[in-house]
Structure formats: C-alpha cells, structure tokens
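Repro:
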Amino acid sequence: MCVNGKVNTVDDIWVFLRLLSRDIIDFPVHNQGTGQTVPFWTGFNCLLSKNSTDVAVVTYPPIIDAKPTDMSTVFTAMKKCLDMSNEAGQAHAIQTFDQQLYAIAQQVKWSRPDIFESHILRLGGFHTLSCFITSLGKLWADGGFSRFVG
C-alpha cells in the first residue's frame, strides 16, 4: 500500500471496503451486507473512472455471391478490404488467401498497381508451410530428407 513513502488513498479505500464487507475487521457500525459486495481491484477502479472506453465491433464483410476463383470476384474482395482499411485510417491493407486465390490476387495486384500499391497479400500459413517443406524436400532429397517428408 505504501510505495516510496506515498500512499494511494483509492487503494487503501478498496482494501478497507473489501475487509469490511467480509466482516474481517470490526467497525463500530454493524454491517448489514451479505457476502462480498465490493468488486475486485480492477472493477473497483473502473467504477471510479470517468474515462469511457470505445467499443469495437468486429464483423464479417458482406458475402460476395460469385465464383471465388473469378478474377473480378478477387478484385472485389481486395477492393473492399482496401476500402475498409482506408476507412479505419490504416496505411496498408493486409489480406490472406489460400494457394489458388493467392495466385489470382497477385495477378490482380500486378494488373492494377495504382489501386493496390499499399495492399499486402499473404499466402495462408498452411500453404506457406507446405510449400516450404516441399522446397526443402526437393533441395535435401539426396541427404535423406525425403524419408521424413513422405
């Protein structure tokens, strides 16, 4: 409760109220409470705080009812991602695709660099790992690595 000779009054009040509501300390006035009524330290300080926090709502973007491997569908998805990132004030839009759609998305990005210059495309983690292991398998196949890769 005392750090470097300074006492934090709010913390002292919290400890006192917690002890009082549990009937651990004697107080001249009888406490009519039943059980612990004072929240934990974080909750107590949130009740005292005048700062309001912003609430973030995370939702899925609207579904694009079209063939996913069509270049115009991938363009629409990338443009929507870019618009949402710009609206949120982000300098870059980051989007992850599986292996087949990643190839199409790269073609879209290369064909329209004026629109997608700040767009970062990622190959899905599973596909990145499988490409890495396949490359290692080809590179080190003569060293016995092919026995472990399959």
